[in-house]
Amino acid sequence: MLKKMVFLGTGGTIAGTAAEASDNVGYTAAQLGVGQLLQAIPRLQQALGPHAFLAEQVVQVDSKDMGWAQWRVLAQRIQYHLAQPDVHSVVVTHGTDTLEETAFFLSRVLSKKLLAQKAVVLTCAMRPASSLAPDGPQNVLDAVAVAGSAEARGVLAVCAGTVHSARDVQKIHPYRLNAFDSGDAGPLAYVEEGRVRWLHACPDADAAADFPLKALAKDPWPRVEIITSYAGAAGAIVRALCADAAVQGIVVAATGNGTIHQDLEAALRVAQVQGVRIVRASRCAYGGIVAGVAEGDFPHSKGLPPVKARIALMLELMA
Ligand code: SIN
After folding, report:
1. Which helix (H) or strand (E) holds 190?
2. 37 near 15, Cβ under 8 Å?
3. Is the shortest distance between the CB of 63 and ligand 1 below 6 Å?
4. Phi and psi for 247 in degrees, rounded to 5?
5. CB-ligand 1 contact for 95 (6 Å cutoff)
6. How many degrees, rounded to 5, is the angle at CA 193 between CA 190 and CA 199?
7. Are 137 and 98 in contact (CB under 8 A)?
8. pLDDT of residue 291
9. pLDDT value at position 319?
10. In the chain, which end has fewer C-beta atoms inside a 10 angstrom radius, N or C?
11. Known catalytic membership, residue 13
């Protein structure tokens, strides 16, 4: 059977345009549809090889504005397509700013069985489509190469010829084309002239049980906030948050190996007694908290950075 690769558009700089082709920063994201983007890519059909393709615009946003409504529909559409026997894989075009959050979210909510067989590849661009030298077309071609590779499965991210897992990918640079990194884990693969050179096998799905996708229909999603510990941090921010009964969880971007300013920590203990779930993550760019023999008052995020720890806690509260 001829299998399809499905392209789902969500907006981002890859779909952005500027008034001047020489302007790589003063653009508006999410202006072109995914169909238009694909049409402008030379040799796409060649890269697709035996696969037909289908393009669908799921949402159209600057990814800084990504929210529950967009995530819900994206997860539903991906799950729908992955479940079709004639769909080989799914490529999602996305803004770079919250790509790591969407990738992690998808890796936690999509069917583990489907992700064990098929790949969902997120890709993006640091320059708008109108740029003199846009990076989006090459990133899409690289994503197609990854999606078409026999080794690919699960949720992956592809940018600047580098393949990252949903768990480890993080944006580390606001401007460079090679804006993503996988921290200590390192990348999964490189894409070189359309060939994928795998360094590691794609990781298995994180959690044992399938997330009940229907739970995403609930409105609103649990409110989990992120606060940071820093020199001079005070407990007032925690008390202000807890004054809002909707706040169910707080992730602390803690210093170093999970330490928290004493004033903040005292306020967090009070919040915990009031029923707010507290998780500590490290604000360090690389590595996660290395737990000692005693766990301490607040559980740590098992290596997840604050933004992903927040998603994990939110999903736990939802499921
Ligand atoms: C966005 O994240 O949608 C805008 C920035 C980008 O894609 O690089």
Report:
1. strand 189-192
2. yes
3. yes
4. -75, 115
5. yes
6. 20
7. no
8. 84
9. 86
10. N
11. yes
pLDDT at 204: 86
Q: Which tokens sit at 110?
A: 């999509």
Q: Classify residue 133 as exposed, middle or buried by CB count within 10 Å of its CB (0-12, 13-18, 19+).
A: exposed
Kindly report, residue by residue over 192-204, the tens digit of the pLDDT: 999 999 999 999 8
The answer to whether 4-198 and 220-318 have equal CATH topology is yes
Question: pLDDT under 50 in the chain at which residues?
Answer: none
Give me ligand 1 centre to Cα 157, in Å. Answer: 14
What is the fold, at CATH topology level, of the domain defined by 4-198? Rossmann fold (3.40.50)
**Domain residue ranges of the chain, discontinuous segments joined by +:** 4-198, 220-318
Atom in ligand 1 nearest the alpha carbon of residue 13: 7
d(CA 65, CA 9): 15
Residue with tokens 């804006």: 179
Q: Is 20 left (phi over 0), alpha (psi -120 to 50) or beta?
A: beta
Please, which residues have CB within 8 angstroms of residue 207's CB and are 6 or more apart in sequence?
108, 112
Å from CA of 205 to ligand 1 middle: 26
| Of 129, 231, 130, 115, nearest in space to 165 by CA | 115
pLDDT in tens, 105-144: 999 999 999 999 999 999 999 999 999 999 999 999 999 9
> According to the model, what pLDDT value does residue 71 have?
98
Q: What is the CATH number of domain 220-318?
A: 3.40.50.40
pLDDT computed for residue 208 by the predictor? 63
* One-letter identity of residue 92: V
